[in-house]
Amino acid sequence: MVLVLNGVLQDDCPMDTTSLFMQHPVYRDYAQQLLSIPTKSVGAVGLLYVGQREMAAAAPHDKNINIIGTDDATTCIIVVVRHSGSGAVALAHFDGTGVDEAVCTMVARVQELALGYPEGRIELQLIGGYRDPQSYGEEVFYNIMQSFHKHHLEIDLTQACVGELNTILRGDLNYPIIYGVGVNIKTGEIFPATFPERGPDRELRDARNFMGAQTVLDIYDASLGLLRIGPFNYDPLRGADLWLSQTDDFLLQHLSTSPEVEPPHFTHHMRATIKFIQENQFPAITVFRDNRPRYYRRDETTGFWTLQNFALN
């Protein structure tokens, strides 16, 4: 009983987005404020990009990061947890897998980064999960709300731009309005965003999801200022050649939960991911030698993430 909606501690968790908005119409106003902000295209310098089934947390004084962000969320929901006193923030891209554990990790990371700041609340913002035909977005919303409601801390929902509030009708099809957001970790500002550059090891990270990873990967070590990928492994993909020989439309229909509304680059990214899996059937051997993560540090001159050739214990 620790979820706070519109300032009121809740005994029960809303079962769906419709119930939430009927009981707390103020969230419509909050969503409208976010939707009124122009979408920004965010460059690579100072960016920590979070992919699907990934999360990251940072504090305002972090010299490596200005923006944490993610995009390409259709039926997925972007989750932002922030400590109002310290400004420490965590962002995740949830598709329904590994939510319980990830929610606990997000809150724990924010608490760690907020040490020394006794004043402040844990605030929660949800963006994405448009009203899709199969109600996948509603399932993800319910999983997220249940996970936060079970948490022992009071958590204040301050934004819920989800479901019908993030849906626009084009012709006879529903489309998401916002596909991605960025969070300015210095100011706490959250805004609609796209990310032409998505950081290192994109195909490797996407391969993990394609092959059915069941956890949300925490990709940033804030104490060391290092982006951290892996280690992880997956089984070889049978029929990679067959997948790659299919048409774009076939890939779209079979690999997306929302084929009608995917961004134009979806199939290109899918092909690159399958090709990577084909060439790295055992990443524990070809990528994560000696079972070591791949660490990246922000280059102070260029602002880009650069691979570090060292091992950390």
TrEMBL record:
GO molecular function terms noted in the UniProt entry:
protein-N-terminal asparagine amidohydrolase activity
Q: Which Pfam families match?
A: N_Asn_amidohyd
The record's InterPro entries line, in alphabetical order, gives: NTAN1
User: Its GO CC terms?
Assistant: nucleus
Q: Which GO terms describe its biological process?
A: ubiquitin-dependent protein catabolic process
Question: Per its record, how is this protein called by name?
Answer: Protein N-terminal asparagine amidohydrolase
Tell me which species this is from.
Answer: Stomoxys calcitrans (Stable fly)
